[in-house]
Amino acid sequence: MRYNREQARWLPIYMRRWLAWGLLFCTLGAVADLVLASGTVARLLYAVGGLSISFNVAIAAAWVGLRGPHGAL
Q1: Residue 7 lies in a domain
Q2: Helix 11-34 to helix 39-67 angle, to the nearest 10 degrees?
Q3: Range of 29's domain?
Q4: Average pLDDT over residues 13-18
Q5: 72 in a structural domain
Q6: Of 16, 71, 19, which is closest to residue 50 (Cα–Cα)?
Q7: How would DSSP label each residue in the chain?
Q8: How far is it, in rounded angstroms, from Cα 70 to Cα 73?
C-alpha cells in the first residue's frame, strides 16, 4: 500500500494525457462530422473520445483514495 501511495503522484499526469486524447478524438469527430460529412466516422471518434471521461473518473477516484488520510483505505 505504501508503494501505491508513493506512486499516486503520477496519476495526475495520466489524467492530463487521457484528457488530451479525449479532446483530440472529439475534435477529430467534429471535423469528420462538419467537414467530411461522415456521420459513421464521427460517431466512432466521439465514442473513443467519450471513453476518456470514464478513464479520468476512475483515475481521479484512485488518486483521491490513495492521497487521502492513511486510515481511509
Answers
A1: yes
A2: 170
A3: 2-67
A4: 96
A5: no
A6: 19
A7: -HHHHHHGGGHHHHHHHHHHHHHHHHHHHHHHHHTS--HHHHHHHHHHHHHHHHHHHHHHHHHHHHHS-TT--
A8: 7
Q: How far apart are CA 12 and CA 6, in angstroms?
A: 13
Q: Give, rounded to a whole angstrom, the gap between the first and last alpha carbons of the chain.
A: 9
Q: How many domains does the chain have?
A: 1
Q: Give the three cell numbers for residue 51.
A: 471513453
* Residues 24-66: tens digit of each pLDDT: 999 999 999 999 888 899 999 999 999 999 999 999 999 999 9
- pTM for this structure? 0.77
Is a pLDDT exceeding 70 seen at residue 72? no
CB proximity list for 27: less than 8 A, separation 6 or greater: none
